[in-house]
Every structure is written in structure tokens, then in C-alpha cells.
Design brief:
By secondary structure, the chain is of the alpha/beta class. It has 5 helices and 5 strands, in the order βαβαβαβαβα. Bound molecules: manganese (II) ion.
């Protein structure tokens, strides 16, 4: 399992992502705005950050730019979650420092798999071995 920070201003989207990730055994951290998300990232050092692009105040692009300027944080996988994945936006999203994006509306059956693409295999849900099998 992984520790995943979600930066998202929409409560319904936040609730759905938290529910799905926790259902698969992942730990979630939540921030409703970009500034709070940056602070949580620095304090808690998540394995992966999911970030909405459209937020009041600091948008997701700015969150990405700032994260990539912080030496201890720039290696963390950063994934945009956006309804605005139109032609051309893909390049802008990647140029901002995101490793990729997941499109809204969130697909409840696919979401966790879409997230785990950006996690190493040992951080996937259900990857921890029963203790009697560990050498
Ligand atoms: Mn939003």
C-alpha cells in the first residue's frame, strides 16, 4: 500500500477518491487547496500526489511548479486529476512537471489501477506478503 496525498477543492471528488483508495488499503492525506497541499507534502512526504488542476487561488499547474522546486519533494510521483484533458493539455500538464494525468469524471472501477500505474509494484494494493511467507 501507499501513502497518497490528494489535493482537490471539490468535496464530492475528494470523498470519492479517498473512499476508493482506502477501500484498496491505501493511506490518504487530504488538502482542499494548493498551499495546504504543499505544506502537507513537506510534512508527510507521501509516495504519490494526486492534484486537481482547477482550484481557486493556486491552481494545479502552480502546485506542480512549486513542488518541483523543493529538493525533497521533486521525486514524488505527481499525477493530475482533471476534466480538462483536452488535446494540447497533455503537453502542458507534462511540461508543468506532472508524471501523467487521470481524467474526470472518476471511473470507480478503474481509478485505483490508474493511480497504481504511477506507483512501484511493492506499493500496489495487496502487494504485502503474509508474514509466514517472508524470508
Ligand atoms: Mn477543482
Amino acid at each position: 500500500m501507499a501513502r497518497i496525498l490528494i489535493i482537490e477543492d471539490n468535496p464530492a471528488n475528494m470523498q470519492l477518491m479517498v473512499y476508493l483508495l482506502r477501500a484498496f488499503g491505501h493511506e490518504t492525506l487530504e488538502a482542499q487547496a494548493g498551499q495546504a497541499g504543499l505544506a502537507t507534502a513537506q510534512n508527510d512526504l507521501p509516495d504519490l500526489i494526486l492534484c486537481d488542476l482547477q482550484m481557486p487561488g493556486m491552481d494545479g499547474y502552480e502546485v506542480a511548479r512549486r513542488l518541483k522546486l523543493i529538493p525533497g519533494l521533486k521525486a514524488i510521483s505527481l499525477v493530475a486529476v482533471t476534466a480538462y484533458a483536452m488535446v494540447g493539455d497533455r503537453d502542458r500538464i507534462l511540461a508543468a512537471g506532472f508524471d501523467g494525468y487521470i481524467s474526470k469524471p472518476i471511473n470507480a472501477e478503474q481509478f485505483v489501477k490508474q493511480v497504481e500505474i504511477f506507483l512501484p509494484p511493492d506499493k500496489h494494493a495487496g502487494s504485502s506478503k503474509p508474514s509466514n511467507l517472508q524470508s
